[in-house]
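Example 3.2
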Amino acid sequence: MKTAVVGATGMVGQTMIKVLEERNFPITELIPAASERSVGKEVMFKGKAVKVVSVLDAVEARPEFAIFSAGASTSRDWAPEFARNGTVVIDNSSFWRMDKNVPLIVPEINSHVIKKGDRIIANPNCSTIQMVMALAPLHRKYRIKRLVVATYQSVTGTGVKAVQQMENERLGIKGEMAYAHPIDKNCFPHGGSFQPDGYTTEEQKLIDETRKILEDQTILVTATVVRIPVVGGHSEAVNIEFENDFDLDEARKLISEFPGVVVYDNPAASEYPMPLMAHNRDEVFVGRIRRDLSREKCLNIWIVSDNIRKGAATNAVQIAEYMSANKLY
C-alpha cells in the first residue's frame, strides 16, 4: 500500500511519518511530499532515508492514501487532484472540515459516517479532537445542552516558528516573531484570526466541529482560546450543561471506559492532567471531574492531550487504519 505524506518536512508531517512507523501501518512505499524548496531533502522511515518529492510527483504516483498537513491552500488545490486519481486524502487542514460532503472524523466516535467511495476525509482541529473524546460518551448518555470552553494551547499548535520564538525569548535572543507579543512568561487570548463578531477562527472551529462530530446541531458552545508557553499539549477547562441529570460516579466511569481516554483524577494527591504528562503520548487525559455547584445538571472537567499526536498525526493515521481494515479505499 503506497502512502503519501504531504507536508512531510513540517512538525506534524514528521510526526505522521513517525506514527505510521510506530503503528506498523501496512505501507509498501512511503512517498514524502512537500513544497518545491524541500524537494530532494530526506526523511527517515524504518531506518531508511527517503527522498522528498513534489506534490505533483506524489499525485502521479497514485498512492492509496495521502495524509495532508500542509495548510489550507495546499489542501484546497491538491486534495481534489489526488482524489481524481483514486487516492483517499486525509486532510489535517481546516479547508474541508465543514464541507457537507466531507466526513469530519474522530475514529473512536464517528467512523460509521465514512462511506466506500469517500475520497476526502477531514481531520478535526486538535482542540476539538481531545474535547469530543471526553464528551462523546457523556453526550450519548445525558445529552449535552451547552458547553463553555476555555483552552490553554501549546505553542506547537502554531508551528516551528512559535516554538523557536519561545526558545529565543528564554535565551534572551532576538529573532523572528510568530506572534504579535512575547509568549514566554506570558499568555494571550488569541488563537487564529479575529472574526467580525469578536471570536477567533480557532474558537469558531470548536463550535462548528463539535456539532458536526457529535451529530447534533442543537449543542450550544461558547469558547475562549488562550495561547500559553508550553510545548507538551493543549489543556481545556470545559463546563458541560446536560439535558438530563447525571450521577457523578457514572459520568466518571463513562469517561474512563471510552477508548483512548484516561481518567487521571486525584486532586488530594496533586494528580491531574498536565501537558508534561501528555507530551508524546496518544491518550486524552481527563481530570478535575466535579459537579458545577452553581447550576443544576452541570459538570466541570479538565482535558489535556498532545496536540501534535492525537490532536493531529495519530488521529489521521487512525482514520487510514480504519479505512484500510474495512476496505473503504
